Amino acid sequence: MPTGTILVADDDAAIRTVLNQALSRAGYTVRLTSNAATLWRWVSSGDGDLVITDVVMPDENIFDVLPRIKKLRPDLPVLVMSAQNTFMTAIRASEKGAYEYLPKPFDLKEMINIVGRALEEPKVRRPVETDDMSEGMPLVGRSPAMQEIYRVLARLMQTDLTVMINGESGTGKELVAKALHDYGKRRNGPFVAINMAAIPRDLIEAELFGHEKGAFTGAQLRSSGRFEQADGGTLFLDEIGDMPMEAQTRLLRVLQQGEYTTVGGRTPIKTDVRIVAATNKDLRQAINQGLFREDLYFRLNVVPIRLPPLRERVEDIPDLVRHFFTQAEKEGLPPKQVDQAALNLLRRYRWPGNIRELENLVRRLAALYPQDVIGESLLEQELSQPVTSALEEEDAENINLGASVERYLGGYFDNYGETLPPPGLYHRILREVEYPLISAALAATRGNQIKAAELLGVNRNTLRKKIRDLDIQVMRSSR
Q1: Where, per the database record, does this protein carry 4-aspartylphosphate (predicted)?
Q2: Least CB-packed of 44, 145, 152, 422 within 10 Å?
Q3: What is the DSSP letter of 30?
């Protein structure tokens, strides 16, 4: 039978009554108050084995009281509740030393389970962060789906656990990775992002680990890689599902051994980075297809976070619209808002491009239309425009190969800014095309190299040499 005295502080009488009944039935002694002053008096007198408190109290904000509680009684678990339900609320609760954060309304069964777990845990002094948190809000939304993400992120802030973020394009995966960095223990270190889909296959290892002078054609100087650039901070590996198999093998070795060598180098370099990976692909399916290493997946998938598409969190749309309009106003665009009918239309829309599509729409409305209040008819006109999003272009079945390569090269050159990529681009691009072409032919012929050579119109020995040179995994199967 559980024992212990629970101190409950909330100015809402209904909440106090519900918690009193539930905790009493569970076997706990309960003391109730509606203000922070009484709570502090109880705590400072040594009363209570656990505290459950709202954030906003009539006399004082609990975030001002919490550091005093943790300093006086560091082993006293404090559960923080809030109806504000923002990312910053969850982060501040964690930073100020709360044992757990629960958004209102909360599940009573979950609350009782958390209380039991907190009282059973060994008493360990928890570090308390007393610096004021930034008032900027990197993540927006109060939906249940986002509340769960906030709680997970808050628990991860003071750890170096590897995180895998999964979500459709446009859901804000890099924003979550940046929040993990900016509010975590590595916030004073660099945040370095690399998009695997935007780097040619032959250059991925050099981009990640750096290269020595003369390591390959065009390597005229030593160059540091992203692991070296991110030392002491966070390395964000975006679109990890597009990483080629040979680079996956080397990345796995780095994660296992904690060190790497540059391309063309021999001296091991110790690495001190937190890895956050992201993908919009089903890596389990990629593993079954032989396109992704299962051991690397388990190394990266220590803490999985699924970002919901916008269509699963439509209750966040009003907050998001206000947020993007505010951003546009700060950039010099006129202030705007949308009426209720327009908001209802936005909630019914499917948002194939997710939050990125909504942000683009809001910026378009702020820049192109003189109306201070955007109505339903104008939005209907905008949403019915046959504008092809980047996501739709990627998914188009009859995409032109030449146009696709041209778009890819545009993004590739953009990554280098004012400089040029290393020499040898012609052969690297041909190699990039060869790999998927031969892989697709082998897949279509179920690994039969004779049929694949005939399909491609090349000599069988030539195909075998290409398979060896490109290190293509030949998967044989039968119907």
Answers
A1: 54
A2: 44
A3: E
| Element holding 235 (H helix, E strand) | strand 234-238
212 vs 188: CA distance, rounded Å:
28
Q: Cis omega (within 30 of 0) on the bond before 105? A: yes
Neighbours of 93 (CB within 10 A): 26
Neighbours of 155 (CB within 10 A): 15
Which top CATH class is 5-137?
alpha beta
Nearest to 4 by CA among 51, 45, 43, 48: 48
Spatial contact of 237 and 194, defined as CB atoms under 8 Å apart: yes
Q: Is the dihedral of CA 412, 241, 216, 437 positive or negative?
A: negative
In the chain, where the domains are located: 5-137, 159-306, 313-387, 401-470
Distance CA 113, CA 117 (A): 6
Structure confidence by residue, pLDDT tens digits, 429-462? 777 788 788 888 887 888 888 888 989 888 888 8
CATH class of the domain whose range is 159-306: alpha beta
User: What is the third-level CATH fold of 401-470?
Assistant: Arc Repressor Mutant, subunit A (1.10.10)
Phi, psi angle pair for 437, to nearest 5°: -65, -50
- Fold classification of 313-387 is Helicase, Ruva Protein; domain 3 (1.10.8)
Q: What is the pTM of this model?
A: 0.61
Q: Please state, in angstroms and rounded to a whole number, the distance separating the CA atoms of residues 205 and 226.
A: 10
Going by pLDDT thresholds of 50, 70 and 90, the confidence category of residue 69 is very high
Output the pLDDT for position 404: 73
pLDDT bucket at 267, cuts 50 / 70 / 90: confident
Which residue(s) pair with 338 in the sheet?
374
* Number of H-type helices and E-type strands within the chain: 21, 14
List of residues 6+ apart from 2 with CB closer than 8 A: 26, 27, 28, 115, 116, 119
Q: What is the mean pLDDT of residues 373-386?
A: 84
Structure tokens at 236: 């964000």
For position 315, what pLDDT does the model report?
92
